[in-house]
Structure to design on (284 residues):
């Protein structure tokens, strides 16, 4: 055993030199190392530390030297813990800022959706001002779509949103043909993959809400003729796939096909109510 610790040993330049140190046995040293390991280090780091503390003859340095090294390590860990707490504080601050940004983004999305709806309303008003005047039942397209969803679910078929849009368009066309009247204030647009009511597209996110019963019952009491046509249309169409529903109303010569050919590069195209009426009258 070596009775003193030489500060010129490997790594010892950073440790104080003790002239008359108290030594420890190898067993005490190993116990101390276990304590250090469980407090601070991994097995690999422990092996490196053990090599650092033992001199080339395998002698053990003083308890004071080990204590000094342990204290230095503890101070380092406390400093690291402080830095971790600071980092956590910065992370929490960043998270809060991100939440604020997400709220701003959601607000902007709502504003954009509203602007799009206003634009669609304006475009439709301009379109309808040049179209032949038709009587209007004035129903809200969103309420009518909800009634369709409820009736279909009652019949055992929860609709996909594209099925809902297509059935709403079929009902719109049938009433144009039968009553010479526009059932909704909103006019369908001919999008790339089929007819779409933009307000319905932006407002209805799910088709299975039980609350849609309210819109169905309101339609039943206020306009039983339309309600009867809705029931009939849903019964005939709700069990069909969207592809099957779209096939006859998007084939060549249909109002959708004609409108898309007039505006092949645009997402939104328009068909005249007179075209929709003639097409559904011919289908019946």
């Amino acid at each position: 055993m070596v009775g003193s610790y030489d500060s010129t040993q490997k790594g010892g330049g950073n440790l104080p030199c003790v002239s008359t140190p108290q030594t420890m046995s190898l067993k005490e040293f190993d116990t101390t190392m276990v304590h250090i390991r469980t407090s601070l280090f991994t097995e690999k780091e422990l092996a490196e530390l053990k090599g650092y503390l033992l001199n080339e003859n395998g002698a053990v340095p003083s308890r004071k030297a080990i204590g000094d090294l342990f204290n230095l390590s503890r101070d380092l860990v406390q400093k690291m813990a402080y830095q971790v707490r600071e980092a956590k504080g910065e992370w929490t601050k960043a998270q809060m800022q991100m939440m604020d940004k997400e709220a701003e983004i959601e607000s902007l999305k709502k504003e954009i959706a509203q602007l799009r709806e206003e634009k669609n309303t304006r475009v439709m008003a301009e379109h309808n001002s040049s179209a032949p005047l038709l009587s209007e039942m004035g129903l809200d397209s969103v309420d009518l779509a909800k009634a369709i969803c409820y009736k279909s679910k009652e019949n055992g078929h929860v609709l996909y949103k594209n099925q809902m849009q297509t059935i709403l368009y079929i009902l719109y066309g049938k009433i144009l043909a039968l009553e010479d009247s526009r059932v909704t204030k909103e006019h369908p647009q001919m999008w790339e993959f089929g007819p779409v009511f933009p307000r319905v597209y932006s407002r209805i996110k799910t088709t299975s809400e039980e609350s849609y019963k309210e819109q169905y019952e309101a339609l039943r009491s206020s306009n039983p003729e339309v309600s009867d046509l809705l029931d009939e249309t849903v019964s005939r169409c709700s069990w069909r796939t969207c592809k099957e529903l779209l096939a006859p109303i998007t084939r060549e010569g249909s109002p959708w096909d004609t409108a898309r050919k007039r505006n092949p590069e645009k997402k939104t195209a328009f068909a005249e109510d007179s075209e929709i009426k003639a097409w559904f009258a011919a289908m019946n």
The first strand starts at residue 135 and ends at 139.
